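Working notes for the structural subgroup meeting. M.R. asked for a predicted model of this chain before we commit to crystallization trials. I am recording the input and output together here so anyone reviewing the notebook later can reproduce the run.

Input as submitted:
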Amino acid sequence: MWAARLPVVLLLLSAAPALAASRAELEARIQTLERKLDSQALVQLLEQVESLQREVQQLRGDLEVQTHELRGLQKRQRDLYMDIDRRLHRLEAGGTNGQAVAPAAGAPVAGQAAPALPAADVGKPPAAAAAGVSRPVGPDEAAARRDYDRALDILKDGRYREAARAFRDFLKQYPSSSYADNAQYWLGEVHYVTREFKTALEEFGKVISQYPKSPKVADARLKLGYIEYELKDWAAARRELGRVVADFPKSTAARLAQERLDRMKREGH
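Returned structure, recorded in token form:
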């Protein structure tokens, strides 16, 4: 029996080196394929990373452009608002650069006698009496206008801390100026823009308490509502915004207040 199996055993022994070589070759080929696959996967991964990086760079570029455009738009809006503010005060003071100003409602026309002023308004300039507030004239008011414009320019440049100091100094130096109510409003605005909401509440509140007849009262109360919204005091926000709508109907402030009230309703506040 062993004699019969001997040739088979010898054949297997003689083929063993060849089988071992084939096995080694197969393992080498497998390793080569694995390296190629790993290399291809790595290349694909790198390509994906590079593509994502390009997309992120593009998004950053788009964001920078949009941010720049937004800042430009905000600056133009602020400049426009401040320019309107200046013009209104200069018109109230009697015009700018010697230009004639159209008479306000109830103002005397050339050739007609000026209307009599109430007793409480005796001694005030006619423009001041019509507005119900003191509006001094002369060198002091000219200096006040100059300092007020300077403070506005600082605010327009976005130098908020410096603007806050300039408006505070103005209010100390010119407490009776016709620009005092506006200066007080802009002081509140500085703190609102810098999100110092507690201080902004105090400063806007002074516009309402110290200058109750000022045209800035509506805007100041609107900002009180906005601040209470930011502080998530929904009841206080509804109260302030509701007062703007009730006390100043058909005004821009009332429209903005109603829009915020509608937004609060949609948000469930």
